[in-house]
Design brief:
The chain is mainly α. The chain has one domain. Helix content is 55%, strand content 0%. The chain is built from 6 helices and no strands. The protein starts with 10 loop residues before the first helix and ends with a helix.
Length: 101
């Protein structure tokens, strides 16, 4: 098997590839337990956060936002622990994420 593309996936996106994990009960159970959004909603959330066009927001962090759906600024700051988001940036992200709860 060759790796054609390497990029982070949301749990919802990974779950949509379920055929590849049918034999692995542990992975299936994990995805059923922790996937909070459908792949369509996760993709929309990811696009909305990307649209903020902040150089501080890395793709890996956007994926974590979609998977974890943080409920407050403190949770968002835990995801972005390597950078310091302004209050305005944190609130913008929080407003987007709250639409998907």
């Amino acid at each position: 098997m060759n790796v054609l593309n390497k990029r982070p996936l949301t749990l919802a996106e990974l779950k949509s590839y379920g055929k590849h994990f049918e034999e692995n009960k542990v992975v299936n159970d994990y995805l059923k337990t922790f996937t909070k959004l459908t792949s369509d909603k996760a993709a929309k959330l990811v696009e909305e956060v990307r649209a903020l066009n902040s150089p501080k927001i890395k793709e890996e962090n956007i994926i974590k936002l979609a998977d974890m759906l943080p409920e407050n600024a403190e949770d968002i700051n835990k995801i972005f622990s390597e950078v310091s988001l302004s209050e305005e940036e944190t609130n913008a992200i929080l407003n987007i994420v709250k639409q998907y709860h």
